[in-house]
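WARN retry 2 of 3 for item q-0093 after timeout on previous attempt; input resubmitted unchanged.
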Amino acid sequence: MSALPAPPHWLAAGAVPRLIGVIGVGGDTVRAVGGAVRNWLVGLPPGDVDLATTAEPGVVAARASRAGFKVVPTGIDHGTVTVVVEGTGYEVTTLREDIATDGRRAVVRFGRDWHADAARRDFTINAMSLTAAGELFDYFGGRDDLAAGRVRFIGDALARVREDRLRILRLFRFHATYARGEIDAEALSASIAEREGLADLSRERLRAEIMKLVVAPRAGATCQAMADCGLLGRVVGGVTTAAGIDRLAAVEAALSIDPDPVQRLALLAVLTREDALRLRERLALSNAEFRRLDGIGHGWRIDPGAGAAAAKRLLYAVGPRGFRDRVLVGFARSGAPADDPGWRDLVGLPDRWAAPHFPVSGEELQRRGLSPGPRIGAVLADIRERWMAADFPVGRAAVGALIDQALAEGVTGE
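OK item q-0093 returned
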C-alpha cells in the first residue's frame, strides 16, 4: 500500500492539538476518529473533527473546564461531551463497548481498549483512528476498503444492523459518498432482512441521513438501488424518481452550484402537495423546509419559453431562493441538456434583476380620495397586476398613470 498522506492540517496546529494536549494527560490517550480520519485519507475536507479518549466523561469535562474551554454534556450517558475551543465544538467520546442494544440505542460500558472500541463501530472505514503524532490505527482494513471504493460492515453485517437499524441508511449514504460499483452483497442482504426495523427509528434520525444521502456524489444511483430493493419507499412513503437527482447534479456541475438537499429531496419524492405534506411528517421537516418542498414540487411547470415577463413575475412572487428552487428543479425535470441556454438564463435571472418594492400603498389611495375598506385592497391588487404587466416601473409618472387607470376603471372590491 502507498505511504500515508501528510498529516492533516487540523492535527498539526490549532484547536485540535490544543484539546488533545489538555485531555491526554495522566496516562490517558486521545485520538481523532471517524469521518475526519476517513476524509483525510481520500483528500476531502475533514468536516467535524471527533475525538476518542481513554479518559472518562467526567475527567474530560474537568480537564477541559480547567483549561478554560466551554463544556456541554451532549451525550454524557454514552460517554460524549462537546468541548468548545476557539468557537468550534468538538465531540470527545470515552472508549466504550456495547453491552445491550435494541436496534435504536445501546447501553454502554466505558473502557480503555482501542481495538474493542473500534470493533463496536459500523463500517471498516469508520473504525480508524489517528494520533496527534500522525500514527494511523486501522484494525479492520478500512484503508484498503477506502482505496477499493468499498463499504463493509465490521464483522457480521446482520449483527451490526440489528444493533442499530439506522445503519441501513448509513450504508447507502456512505456507499453514495465513498464507494464504487455495487453495494456490498452481505451488507445489502442484512439491510433488506432488517428493513422492518426502519419503522422504529425516530423521524429526526431518518431526516438527518436522507438529507446527507441525497447530496452525496453518487446519490442518484444509490437512491435507485434503495428503491429497487424496497427500502427507499419505506422511508419516504411514496413513489420516487431517483433519475432526477443525476440530472440536477449535471446542471449543478455545469453551473458550479453546490447541491442543495431540499431541492434534491423534491426531485426524488415530491410531485404534489400531498407528497410534501407526507415528507414533513415522516422526516420531521422544519416549516421552512416544508414550504420550500411545497413550492419546488411544482417547478416542472416552469418554461423558459414563457418569456422574461413571466420569469420576473415568479421571481417577484417567491423571492430569489424560491425562484432558484423552482427553476433548478424544473430544469432537471425538463430533460434539457445542462448547457441549455434558456434554462441557464432563467437560473441567472436573480443575479441580473432584483424585484423592486411595490411602490403603491393604501395610504396613497386614501389621499386620492378612497375611503378605508375592502375597495382599497381590491384596487391595490388591480394596480399590482398592472404594475407587473408594465415590467415593474418605479418612476413616479409611470406609477401615477397606473393608479389613474385603476381608479378610472372603478374597481369595486365587492
